[in-house]
Every structure is written in structure tokens, then in C-alpha cells.
Design brief:
About 40% of the residues lie in helices and about 15% in strands. It has about 210 residues and is an alpha/beta fold. The protein has two domains: about 180 residues, Rossmann fold; about 30 residues, no CATH class. Helix 4 packs parallel to helix 5. The longest helix is centred in the N-terminal third of the chain and has 20 residues. The chain is globular, with a radius of gyration of 18 Å. It binds S-adenosylmethionine.
Length: about 210
């Protein structure tokens, strides 16, 4: 399990996608002589190219979101589709309907021969990932790439992925979002506190981050 702390701006997007490309190539190579079906899961897939829209439905966390670099470069789903040796199947999860429609267009245009290997699933990553982890993983292995803008990954989801013992997870952890949700006053608005508890899996974060006087 890899947990990467996210920095903002600059060449971060390039660095993250180069690291992903390199990892997926090594992973697919390592498993290429086994009989496992190789699956790539992108749980926050975006639109496929990097002019992804900013989210609009979570006003509370707007100021916590990163700004993607300008440009039209391939995002993580298309990087995965280009991996050699290839993955057998791809599951792309995205909450935003317009983004997933655009992603489908991009895959059709850039990887027409792979379109039948891709399952596009619109909805919340937590619910969809938790459902996936309940399937039979005996003959399958996967990489799950979790690249949220803000604190959108619940601890329950991480636990259910770990339980499969068949899925390598990458979580790009939005550390700055956590910092911004911990005011110096120690008075954390209840909605933020609930989100922090969902993220860390318990309310102990308040003891950990705030010194008792
Ligand atoms: C940082 S972007 C992903 C960028 C993508 N990895 C790439 O390389 O192009 C995060 C995406 O997650 C989506 N998103 C946010 N919350 C979500 C959720 N709960 N479930 C699924 N997708 C979500 C947003 O709509 C956005 O497209």
C-alpha cells in the first residue's frame, strides 16, 4: 500500500503520472508470467485529459481543492491504458457525469481497440470500491489508484481494499486539506470534524493533532 502526500502546483501532475506509469509497467511485468487477471481501477478517474473541471457540488471543500495544471495531457486512466505489458481490464469510477462521458470519448478516440476492456462506472468511489472488494479476488490482482481532490476517501474503503489482499492501493493523500481543516483555535466545525473522522477511521485525530494544555 503506497500513501503519497500531495503537494500543490508546479510539475506535481507530471511527477505523479510518471510515477504511476513506471509503477504500472513494473507491476504488469512482475505479474506477466502468472495466471492472474490484471485489473487497473481508477477510483477518481476524471475526464481523461487534464482540463478536468473543478468540482462544484462540495462548496465546503472548494478552497481545499488543488488546481490542475493547464493543458491537455493524458490523465491517469489513459496512462494506464497505455501500459505495456497491458492490463486485462480497466474499471474507471467518476462521480461527475460530464467527466465520465468525456473520458469515454477520449478512450474511444485514443484506445479504440481497448474500449471493450473498460468498465465506466458513475458514482461515489467509496460505495463502488467497497462493492468491488466483495467480489471473488482469488484469480485476480489489481492496482487501485485513488487521486481525490480533497478528503473523499473513507477509512472503511481503505480497510475493505486491504482485506482483499489482492489489490495494491495508491492513495494520493491531500495533506494540505487536513491542515486547512484544523484551525489554530482548536474549534473544528462539526462538518469538518465528521469528515476528518471518516478519513482517519476514528475521532482520535483530535487528540493527535491538538496538544492538551
Ligand atoms: C484529481 S481529479 C482526478 C484526476 C485523474 N487522476 C487524472 O490523472 O486525470 C479527481 C476527480 O475525482 C472526482 N471525484 C470527486 N469526488 C468523487 C467521489 N466521491 N467519487 C468519485 N469521483 C469523485 C472529481 O469529479 C474529479 O474528476
Amino acid at each position: 500500500m503506497a500513501i503519497v502526500t500531495k503537494n500543490f502546483g508546479g510539475g506535481w501532475s507530471d511527477d505523479k503520472l510518471n510515477a504511476l506509469r513506471s509503477y504500472l509497467t513494473s507491476y504488469a511485468n512482475a505479474l506477466s508470467r502468472s495466471s492472474f487477471e490484471r485489473i487497473y481501477i481508477d477510483a477518481f478517474a476524471g475526464a481523461g485529459i487534464r482540463d478536468v473541471p473543478q468540482e462544484t457540488d462540495e462548496q465546503l471543500f472548494d478552497e481545499l481543492q488543488s488546481k490542475e495544471d493547464e493543458g491537455y495531457r493524458h490523465g491517469s486512466p489513459l496512462i494506464a491504458l497505455g501500459t505495456d505489458p497491458p492490463f486485462h481490464r480497466f474499471i474507471f469510477i467518476e462521480r461527475d457525469a460530464a467527466s465520465i462521458a468525456k473520458l469515454k470519448e477520449q478512450v474511444t478516440k485514443s484506445f479504440p481497440s481497448k474500449i471493450d476492456d473498460v468498465s465506466f462506472r458513475q458514482g461515489d468511489a467509496n460505495g463502488l470500491l467497497q462493492a468491488l472488494t466483495q467480489e471473488n479476488w482469488k484469480a485476480r490482482r489489481a492496482v487501485a489508484f485513488l487521486d481525490p481532490f480533497a478528503l473523499h476517501v473513507k477509512w472503511d474503503t481503505i480497510e475493505s481494499i486491504a482485506k482483499t489482499q489482492a489489490i495494491d492501493m495508491w492513495l494520493l493523500f491531500p495533506a494540505m486539506a487536513v491542515n486547512r481543516m484544523l484551525p489554530r483555535s482548536g474549534i473544528v466545525p462539526p462538518k469538518w470534524a465528521a469528515r476528518l473522522t471518516e478519513t482517519f477511521g476514528s475521532s482520535e485525530w483530535s487528540e493527535y493533532f491538538y496538544e492538551k494544555q
